[in-house]
């Protein structure tokens, strides 16, 4: 039995729901009498909203098309292009759940290698015409071709596998570093995926050397065919630079340091990718591809990939259809926005509303200096966007004209949506809303950016408490995508629908949250932080406690997070939570000392523990080990999540994970917090059961 037949047998029946990407072959007479090209168009039969992907059947369909091309003697070249706006985005990962053995996993890698490498081994030159998004295996198809052109309009080029818990396993780790050098290759393979899955555009790909020529979208294919004809006639040449003579070790070591800083050894995929890139310098193609097969087999059968796919599904699907959101037809139109306050958070909000909604935004504050500073901040940020070329001069002028200031709330009279971002004090916020309600229409939505206070209490004294809603952003507002939308006891569906509509227009991922102390992210982070700080108060060394959770691969250590949030804010939230749940949330006397001393945190300028800050936390006679601190924090999280779900703070554990991924930077490779607690057994130890069904975000057990 041939290898292909063996792979067919192993993968038969896998991914029964695969949307097959077909390989449609047609002959093209090239310009200048260069001959006939067999042009393969990748097309799954849907528009650009459902990109081309490759499962077992799609790979076999492409293999069959290449069989037909290879048997011909009348073609001088082979080309491959995608359907409109899409080249291909790689493996069809919806079928991962059906892969139940390492042998099947390895067969997927080997089949992909067998098919894709044929583009470079046909006996005639091959050309990839990258006309649209090219990610993962889609980019790897192009790398296997001898020549590549790319459209300047391509919005996304990437190798995102490490973001999900995989490696580029169909040639990417071997071909890309040899083509453009290890340093540039590792940006796509390691750095970008670990930086919120950053993508590059077509022009960037060309400048990196991934493509040999670039053309404009309007006549991309025509110009690509003309260029291909020139290459075949010897009228256009492509020079390749050898990168294998240099020592790659320093570049690999530098990338490994980056991975250690971001993940602290928590996810195997980036480390496997680094080893594969290092191998590419000396390995033959067969050796390199075989090593990729082994890595894919291991990772496809690992929990990290299943967790990463679960997290990806949350962000791509659940976030776009928020659970519990009312009918969007109830949403009211927003033509003007008011922002109470002109501090940093308020100014960030004003900028976001102006950019995304493109409606007038007016800020208010208590004195002219604060107001001028707030409006000035917004105008300055708009100027920076213009200087970076992200907006035109006309756009900048229009945006600046939209953002104004007023010392009186009368300016809100014709606003449809007013959000407050003032001091985190219930009485202050109640007074603000009473003043706003006196001047706005009866249907104007009143939103609060509170991080922990009760929406219901905030609205209690108003004539129309039904139009008050929580609208909790995360700092920095322009970067973090989460928006917790909080329904108070009186909040009506029209207000809630308007809030979700505005959140979507702001390009935020909104999650519906019940009015409960600190909502989701801050409630869990405060519990988590409280346990770590309590361990230090009891005598655990600061460094031991701060690095106890390194194995999770969180974006920063607990005390680095404390430094970012600010001790005063952390203390205020801890006090709020202690008042609500005194049996589970404590208030650290040492943290209070840190705030009273005016310290910005525990770290000094060199990011070492500051001796004066350390002195405030010295004492205690019951030190814990790092493992004890880790388990203490995880058990507390499991307990709190179970209570939140029982209280109906969100509709399901998936919403907790979505909030922690998007609002707290919880790593994708963990799938969020609940899959991690399930896999480690902490969920069952603390609560008597799992948060998710077995096999969800983890490898199914026999």
TrEMBL record:
GO BP, sorted A to Z: fatty acid beta-oxidation
Keywords of the record: Fatty acid metabolism, Lipid degradation, Lipid metabolism, Lyase, Multifunctional enzyme, NAD, Oxidoreductase
GO molecular function: enoyl-CoA hydratase activity; long-chain (3S)-3-hydroxyacyl-CoA dehydrogenase (NAD+) activity; NAD+ binding
Domain 3-hydroxyacyl-CoA dehydrogenase C-terminal: 519-601
Catalytic activity: a (3S)-3-hydroxyacyl-CoA + NAD(+) = a 3-oxoacyl-CoA + NADH + H(+)
NAD found in the keyword field: yes
Domain 3-hydroxyacyl-CoA dehydrogenase NAD binding positions: 336-515
Pathway: Lipid metabolism; butanoate metabolism; Lipid metabolism; fatty acid beta-oxidation
Domain of life (superkingdom): Bacteria
Family: Belongs to the 3-hydroxyacyl-CoA dehydrogenase family. In the central section; belongs to the 3-hydroxyacyl-CoA dehydrogenase family.
Protein name as it appears in the record: 3-hydroxyacyl-CoA dehydrogenase
Organism: Planotetraspora phitsanulokensis
Lineage: Bacteria, Bacillati, Actinomycetota, Actinomycetes, Streptosporangiales
């Amino acid at each position: 039995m041939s290898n292909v037949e063996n792979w067919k047998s192993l993968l038969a029946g896998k991914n029964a729901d695969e949307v097959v990407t077909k390989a449609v072959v047609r002959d093209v007479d090239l310009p200048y009498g260069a001959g006939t090209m067999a042009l393969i168009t990748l097309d799954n039969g849907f528009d650009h909203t459902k990109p081309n992907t490759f499962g077992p059947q799609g790979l076999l369909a492409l293999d069959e098309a290449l069989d037909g091309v290879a048997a011909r003697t009348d073609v001088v070249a082979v080309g491959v292009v995608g359907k409109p706006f899409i080249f291909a985005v790689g493996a069809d990962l919806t079928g991962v759940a059906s892969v139940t053995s390492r042998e099947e996993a390895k067969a997927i890698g080997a089949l992909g290698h067998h098919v894709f490498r044929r583009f470079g081994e046909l006996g005639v030159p091959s050309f990839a015409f990258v006309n649209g998004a090219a990610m993962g295996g889609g980019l790897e198809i192009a790398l296997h071709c001898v020549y590549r052109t790319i459209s300047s309009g391509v919005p996304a080029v990437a190798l995102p596998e490490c973001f999900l818990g995989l490696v580029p396993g169909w040639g990417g780790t071997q071909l890309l570093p040899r083509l453009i050098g290890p340093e540039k290759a590792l940006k796509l393979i390691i750095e970008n995926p670990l930086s919120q899955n950053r993508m590059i555009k077509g022009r960037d790909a060309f400048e990196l050397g991934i493509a040999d020529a670039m053309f404009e979208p309007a006549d991309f294919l025509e110009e690509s065919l003309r260029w291909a004809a020139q290459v075949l006639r010897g009228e256009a040449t492509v020079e390749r630079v050898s990168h294998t003579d240099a020592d790659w070790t320093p570049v690999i070591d530098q990338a490994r340091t980056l991975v250690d800083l971001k993940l602290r050894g928590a996810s195997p995929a980036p480390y496997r990718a680094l080893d594969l890139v290092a191998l590419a310098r000396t390995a033959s193609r067969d050796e390199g591809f075989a090593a990729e097969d082994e890595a894919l087999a291991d990772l496809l059968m690992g929990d990290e990939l299943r967790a990463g796919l679960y997290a990806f599904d949350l962000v791509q699907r659940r976030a776009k259809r928020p659970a519990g959101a009312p009918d969007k037809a109830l949403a009211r139109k927003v033509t003007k926005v008011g922002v109470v306050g002109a501090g940093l958070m308020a100014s960030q909000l004003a900028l976001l509303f102006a950019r995304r909604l493109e409606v007038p935004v007016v800020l208010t504050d208590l004195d002219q200096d604060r107001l001028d500073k707030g409006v000035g901040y917004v105008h300055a940020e708009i100027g920076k966007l213009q200087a970076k070329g992200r907006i035109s001069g006309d756009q900048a002028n229009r945006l600046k004209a939209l953002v104004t200031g007023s010392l009186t709330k009368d300016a809100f009279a014709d606003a449809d949506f007013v959000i407050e971002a003032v001091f985190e004090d219930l009485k202050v916020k109640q007074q603000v809303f009473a003043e706003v309600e006196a001047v706005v229409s009866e249907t104007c939505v009143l939103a609060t950016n509170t991080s922990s206070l009760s929406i219901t209490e905030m609205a209690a004294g108003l004539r129309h408490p039904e139009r008050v809603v929580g609208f909790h952003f995360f700092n920095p507002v322009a970067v973090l995508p989460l928006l917790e939308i909080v329904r108070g006891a009186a909040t009506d569906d029209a207000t809630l629908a308007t809030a979700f509509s505005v959140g979507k227009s702001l390009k935020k991922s909104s999650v519906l949250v019940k009015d409960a102390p600190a909502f989701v992210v801050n409630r869990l982070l405060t519990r988590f932080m409280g346990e770590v700080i309590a361990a230090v108060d009891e005598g655990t060394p600061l460094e031991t406690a701060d690095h106890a959770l390194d194995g999770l691969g969180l974006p920063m250590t607990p005390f680095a997070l404390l430094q970012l949030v600010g001790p005063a804010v952390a203390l205020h939230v801890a006090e709020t939570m202690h008042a609500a749940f005194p049996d589970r949330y404590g208030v650290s006397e040492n943290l209070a000392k840190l705030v009273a001393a005016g310290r910005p945190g525990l770290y000094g300028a060199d990011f070492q523990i500051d001796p004066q800050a350390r002195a405030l936390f010295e004492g205690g006679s019951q030190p814990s080990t790092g493992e004890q601190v880790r388990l203490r924090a995880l058990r507390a999280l499991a307990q709190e999540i179970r209570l939140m779900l029982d209280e109906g703070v969100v509709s399901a554990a998936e919403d907790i994970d979505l909030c922690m991924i998007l609002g707290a930077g919880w790593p994708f490779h963990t799938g969020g917090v609940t899959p991690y607690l399930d896999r480690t057994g902490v969920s069952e130890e603390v609560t008597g059961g799992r948060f998710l069904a077995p096999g969800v975000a983890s490898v199914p057990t026999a």
